[in-house]
Structures are given as structure tokens and as C-alpha cells.
Amino acid sequence: MRQALRAWLARFGPEDGRVAVALSGGADSLALTAAALAESAEVHALVVDHRLQAGSDAVAATAAATASSLGCRTARVLPVEVTGSGGMEAAARTARYAALDDARAGLPVLLGHTLDDQAETVLLGLGRGSGARSIQGMAPDHAPWGRPLLGVRRETTRQFCADLGLTPYEDPHNSAPEFTRVRLRTEVLPLLEDVLGGTAALALARTAEQLRDDNTALDGFAGELLLRAGAGAPVCEVLAGAAPAVRRRAVRAWLLAAGVPAVSGPHLRGIDELVVAWRGQGGVAVGGGERGTRLVVIREHGRLTLARTDRERRDRRETS
Questions:
Q1: Half-sphere exposure (CA, 13 Å, Cβ side) for 302?
Q2: N or C: which end of the chain has fewer CB within 10 A?
Q3: Is the dihedral of CA 85, 86, 88, 90 positive or negative?
Q4: Is the Cα torsion angle 212, 217, 221, 223 positive or negative in sign?
Q5: pLDDT by residue (tens digit) across 74-109?
């Protein structure tokens, strides 16, 4: 545990050695906090209370008290409201990251994701048919988020807590079968480990690391392509001459830079048709835009253009 923290701090840590830690009270984040205290100059604990279970405030208060007793400079409880689309898991994640970002006071926030979490993330991406960007899993550093434990097994964090005499909180949601990730953790991964002789999680994590290197290279090629095509309104002829993987990444980068909040696979496939199979078809709606409008990618004079259309007028036209 300490070696993992030491290596992360040497590679990604701030010069002053000050960090924040997202602490839930579970074994992973509790072990991370203790290891960070041993290796960092100063640690601030941030405890998010999702308020999804009775007594969550007491759990959060206990975690904060533990952090203070271990030596954290500060320990704050951050109550959040879990609302929004995408299911409870997604809504809780959004609320959690927003609260941590607001409270971190310029410090990097260390998260307790382990090698086992990485393996689960890769499996989720594979099962959903996601592209390489999803299957590459979580990065060890994606400012302001740091994940020093991606090479550490979950059993190691539990042993570390036991060695220090710390009692982790056991979140009942972590054993609730209605959550897909829980079933991957308790049913799918153990079966894979049994079939593959105990190497499944390690292999999945290694796959994520290799894909991350590949994606970094492809993103670099896509950036060069976008510069040649014109980042403001890319020239379709220039885009069409590139490999599909590079071309679609260039289009994705262009859309994100233009303010499109999220870019999906169907968006990219539709826009790719505008570039390589142009037959005068209409534009591709990509979401976003101000209230009452939607963003649409169209091909105009041999270039891709992002236009804003009246949402209500278009909806009436499509239903008439």
C-alpha cells in the first residue's frame, strides 16, 4: 500500500505533497487514507454522505472521526442530493464527484479504486459493446482525480486495515444483486478467476493499461488530422483520407471542443456517413444546445458544420 502511494506521488503528486482523499469508510478508501498519511506531507479527508440509507449521516461522521484520529489535517462531511437520470448508481456518482470537486480547494483527490475495480470496469465496457476508450478503464491520474491503488488487489486493502486495527464500514449496497457491478464482482469475476486459474483480474487490468497506451497514440494522430482538416469546420476530403479510428476520434475531439456535452457511438457513425458516404442526407443531431434548441452536425460546402436548430419546430416537422 505504501509503495503504491509513494510511486503515485513521485510520478503525479503535487510538489508540496498535500492531497485530499475521498473517504467512504470502506476498506479501500480507509486503507488509502492511512497509506496517504504515511507518505504525504498533508492529508485532508472528504467524506460524501449520499443520504441514500438510514443512518448514513452516522456512518459519514464515524468515517470523518476516524480520519481525524489517524492524523488527517481536516475531515469534512459533504451531504449531497442524489437526483437525475441514468439510474441511482450514475446519479450518485455525478453527485459525489461534483461535491468532491467543490470541496477539494485546489488539491488532487485520491480515490480508492483497486485493481479489482479496474477489472470490473473493463468487463462492464466489454459487456456493453463499448469502444476502446471505455475498455481502457480508469487512469491512474486524470486531474484532479488520482488513483494510486490500480495495481493493488482489494484483499490487500482489507489486510492493511486489519494490520492497523481499523474496522471498515461494510456498505450493504456493495452486496445488493440489483446492481450490475455487484453481480460482476460476486458472480462473474470469481467464475472467470476459477476458469482461468486466478489470472482474470490481472489480465483485464493489463488489457486496460495496454489500451490506454494505444488510445493515447491514436488521440495524438487524431489531433494532427484535425489540425490539417481545420478545427473550426473540418474539411471532409481531408478527414475521409484517414483511417476510420483516427477520423472518428478527430470528429469526437472537434465536437467536444465545440461544446457538445457527450458524444456517443451512434453520433460518430452518423457523422462518419456525412464524411465518407455523402449523398445529400440530412444532419446528425448530437444533443446539447441552449434551451429550446438542439445541436446538429451538417455537411456544407464540403465541410462539417455544427448548427443550432429550433427544437420545437423540428419536432413538429418530424411528427407531421
A1: 6
A2: C
A3: negative
A4: positive
A5: 999 999 999 877 678 888 899 999 999 999 999 999
Residue 139 to residue 143: CA distance in whole angstroms: 10
The predicted-structure confidence for 10-33, as pLDDT tens digits, reads as follows: 999 999 999 999 999 999 999 999
Amino acid type, 10: A
Quote the CA–CA distance of 132 and 10 in Å, as a whole number: 28
DSSP letter (8 states) at residue 151: T
DSSP string, 91-147: HHHHHHHHHHHHHSTT--EE----HHHHHHHHHHHHHTT--HHHHT---SEETTEE-
Q: What is the DSSP string of 176-240?
A: -TTSHHHHIIIIIHHHHHHHTTS-HHHHHHHHHHHHHHHHHHHHHHHHHHHHHH-SSS-BHHHHH
Percentage, residues of the chain above pLDDT 90:
75
Q: Kindly report the pTM of this predicted structure.
A: 0.82
Please report how the helices 154-163 and 27-39 are oriented relative to each other, as an axis angle in degrees rounded to 10.
Answer: 70
State the DSSP H helix or E strand holding residue 19, giving kind and residue range, or none if neither.
strand 18-22
* pLDDT in the model for residue 310: 67
Contact predicate 110/98, CB 8 Å: no
Cell of 158: 482489507
Q: Among all chains, which residue has been given the C-alpha cell 470502506?
A: 26
Q: Which of 100-109, 257-266, 281-290 has the highest mean pLDDT?
A: 100-109
Which amino acid is it at 196? L
Q: Cβ neighbours of residue 256 under 8 Å, at least 6 residues apart?
A: 263
Distance CA 5, CA 34 (A): 10
Q: Would you tell me how many other CB atoms lie within 10 Å of the CB of residue 261?
A: 11
Residue 26 burial (CB count, 10 A): 20
